[in-house]
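ASSEMBLY PREDICTION REQUEST
Request ID: AP-0331
Submitted by: J.K., bench scientist
Number of chains: three
Total residues: 377
Priority: normal
Notes: Please return the full assembly, not individual chains.
Input sequences:
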Amino acid sequence: MSRIFPYPLLIVSLIGMWLLLTDFTPGQLILGIIVSLLAAQGLHSLQPSTPRLRRWDLIPKLIGLVLLDIIRSNIAVVRLILTEGHNKRNSGFVSIPLELKDPTALAILSVIVTSTPGTAWLDYSDSRGVLMIHVFDLVDEQDWIDLIKNQYEHLLMEIFE
Amino acid sequence: MSAILISWSILISQAAIALAMVLATTRMLRGPRAQDRVLALDALYVCGMLQLVLFGMRTGTVIYFETALIIGILGFVSTVALGKFLMRGEVIE
Amino acid sequence: MTNSLENMPLWLAIIISAFILLGGFLTLVGMIGLVRLRSFYERIHAPTLGTSWGTGSIVVASMILFTWLESRPVFHEILIGVFVTITTPVTLMLLARAVLYRDWAEGDEKSPLLKSQQKPPKE
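STATUS: Completed
Returned structure:
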């Protein structure tokens, strides 16, 4: 089973993308299935590490949390850019020690951190497990450390580890 | 009424994004360093993509969607290549 | 094409217009930030405005508009949204790491890597 369908999530999303780009017809569905199975075989021969999802039910919560956070920080950053010069704003680097080790979870965390305006992922040291981010409006370092650790790292660890 | 509302808001948004493209170009020309130019180029690609999506909405055809997707992909690949170049001075290691 | 812009209900038109205008506004503010902010590490935050909700709201507006115009669900624009959300962090991270490395190699005092006592390579 797992030899024919090595990456079910990848196959399903590739079929979905194929259908979106062409048409929702049975013929395209068959063609899409063939193409995505070939692509999955190709990926299988590269042998990447397979992510293991433990808690599917927490993913919608994560997505909702990220969307809310993006809206909130969008408003904050728009306000800061438009009032630039009128207020004193301090931006700086924050180092966060992470317990998260799973590469997929780290990749997802990096996407979350970077796509939220106001925080940018700069560097992650594998051996020390320390993440460095740049924060646009830095008031208290501890706030950001708590935010990343309690909100996202905790949730990602529950999903992946 | 609806048609007027939508066509005006598309027009205003297109003007805003055109202005955004001008600003990105300013940053690209001013620099001061290579990384600022690459960042501005990436932003310019995103603006161009949005401009095409809006253009597609304006004309009511879906053809521009594929163009926008291609511009997005090209922007991604070129920024990654430039980022690699800034890191090591070569693209393929 | 059975529906046209003329017979679209006003509330739908208002929703679409709001999304379109929000997208244009966010992208513009992002680029204003790109020009006005003073250091590179601050500037790297500016384009994410345009790529997160700027792109998102224009894509949503386009999806609603074409769903109405063609009287069938049109979702393919969501590919642009997904694509931009996935790729922007990758490019920004690559760029940020390249800049960190460049500042470090040049011995820039503002570089955070120098503060953590890592010596730049000797040329």
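REVIEWER COMMENTS: The mean pLDDT of chain C is 80.
SIGN-OFF: pending second reviewer
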